[in-house]
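pasting input
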Amino acid sequence: MADSPVAQRWFGRFWFVVLALGLIFLQLLPLQTIPRSWAPPDMMLAITLAWVARRPDLVPVLSIVSVFLLADLLFLRPPGLLAFVILVATEFLRSRSETLRSGSFPFEWITVALIIVAITLANRAILAVTATDQTPLALGMFQMMMTVLTYPVAVLFSFLAFGIRRPALGEVDAFGRPV
Amino acid sequence: MARDRQTDEDYVGPIRRLLIGVLLLVLAGTFIVWRIDSPRVERFRAAVIDRVVPNMDWALAPVTGLINLVADFQSYQGLAQQNADLRRELQQMKAWKEAALQLEQENAKLRDLNNVRLDPQLTYVTGVVLTDSGSPFRQSVLLNIGSRDGIIDGWPVMDGIGLVGRIAGVGQETSRVILLTDTSSRVPILVQPSGRHAILAGDNALDPLIDFLEDPDLVRPGDRVISVSDGGVFPADLLVGQVVLGPDRRLRVRLAADYERLEFLRVLRNQPREAISDQGGLLTPFTSPQSPAEQDGGGNG
């Protein structure tokens, strides 16, 4: 079914969208109607960054934008803002993915952590500049830290469930190009 | 091969950059339009939710049930203890029920004596909770009833006992309830024995804060809190909860509604009250420039 390289790539892209929609669905389940003093990590962001850092070809710009715009609308966030910030961040990470591939995992983790911090701060900064209602600061910072800490989990999950791993140096795809 | 790839990238690179530029513009535009003209974009958001969420309806209920089942299973060990506690509580409740029944009879007699009429227009529509807000920063739920069922923005929502929130955002088949605990929720309230007016301000904690209270000394923990019709936002006399003293030494309200199990919610049909808009005709001098004959014609037509 998925043996030709083109099909394989489209399969990976398809699975990314399905995974993101599944995460949205899980977050929407009415399990928690009382306010919490803690915030769960943003798994969608962690998984997206993991896939972009490791297999940028499976996460095209259009999937990222459509998935995060839908999440913005469903989760009552300012529509378009987080999608905008994340698009800029993933483009930055995409341009670095070649460098990351030769580095060690802690280096990748630190890069992603800085990107997550930058996303959170940029989001808050734009909201502050446009004088929009902010979410509680402590809760936002907590979620940011949780997302940074769960990044290895997202990487491990992507590897075990979808076989997303860093291509080895000099590895070529079926067309003979460097991956 | 290498030259092929080169030409490939020559095409793809600029197009990709253009695509990203367009996407960034669209996203930034959406955000800016939302900031400038929020109601229009919020209507769009309600329409999107209206399209997307009912499609998940078939899966939402079973998955929620399954997860709750697992959570309940984990708590089976405490069940015997809980059972004993509940029996004891039930005994106390029976005594209270007796007292309540007697009071209700007395109340009915007194109402009859006073010829009191309760508002007959306060009827309700019941809906099922589909989803929560999906974010730890927002406290709201989505109901499976919408404008199709006659729901209108701003109507109050209760569970069986107390006020839960108000409708904010109505789609064709869904409507969103902003809970009293949400940071954007502000509701006028009355603290009962002292009759003080205040605002109930949600702050993402389970017990919302009492704000703009004029005389905090007159309000004590344990006082009943009910809604008032100030500003025509809510019908009066809906139970909200009890005053408690928060851990930060500020007065808060313990809500009467059971926020842990929001499953079926009632949306009250809140009829707008007649507003007195003109000044009393008898008191002001007659200043119409029209002739009396013309005015007669207008009145008949």
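fyi Residues 5-29+38-162 of chain A form one domain.
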